[in-house]
Amino acid sequence: MKFRIEVDENISENEIVLRCKNLDEDMLELQRQLSGITKASGALEVFSGEADYYLKFSEIIFLETDGGLVIVHTKDQIFHTKQKLYELEELLPFYFFRVSKSTILNTKEIRCIHKNITGASEIEFAGSMKKSYVSRNYYKPLLEKMKQQ
Asked: Does residue 130 contact residue 73 with C-beta atoms inside 8 Å?
């Protein structure tokens, strides 16, 4: 694979073009990661009580649904967002990963996964006492995602 940068002062917006012989999983993953890099500097609008906050994506350790609300967890705080989990899955950078029907987590913040062969495995996060769970169906894909980082 080769990389090339072309400078063109006449364009109005930067553009990345991937040219490939075949559209395979490696190219799709590269596209997802490049998209995630541009998303990584973004922020998510959340609220707590009467106040609105703007969290950097890197501050979020996981998101989960509960009773129709999406709860956003940082290492030491809890917020809510009006967006749906499936909308957030498209918005969040590549290092976020769905681990169950109701949870998306920041794979960069995973400290430990306690494997449970009969049910959901417990996830611990770096610098936080909070825990989440990965369902059996998402366990192996999560391990693959962790190896790619």
From this structure: yes
4-56 confidence digits (pLDDT tens): 888 888 888 877 888 888 888 888 877 777 765 655 567 899 999 999 999 99
3-state helix, strand, coil in the chain (%, to 5): 30, 35, 40
CB atoms within 10 A of CB 109: 23
User: Is 20 in contact with 36 (CB distance < 8 Å)?
Assistant: no
Query: Which pairs count as long-range contacts for 128-131, CB under 8 Å and 24+ apart, including other chains?
Result: 128/61, 128/75, 128/76, 130/61, 130/62, 130/73, 130/75
Is 37 strand, coil or helix? helix
**pTM exceeding 0.85:** no
pLDDT digits (tens, 9 = 90+) for 83-116: 999 999 988 988 999 999 999 999 999 999 999 8
CB 104 within 8 A of CB 63: yes
Name beta bridge partners: 51.
Answer: 48
